[in-house]
Amino acid sequence: MKKYEVAIFNQVVKDAVRQGEKNRTGLSDDWGDLHYIEINAETPDQARAKAHTRHPEARGFVITEIREIR
What we know:
Blueprint: E1 2-10, H1 11-18, E2 35-41, H2 44-54, E3 61-69
Antiparallel strand pairs: 1-2, 1-3
């Protein structure tokens, strides 16, 4: 198992904050900025799949980068 760092943010939150609207996602406004989460996986694709399980695209989450941590 390898360790990956996944850079992720929420586009819905980012758009609401940028437009000065109330964020109605139930997430804090800081989700409009990049968050870095660590995920254990065998491959980058598996790390992406695990990240999207917890942070689904359908809820506005966008992964910008996945890199292996050594």
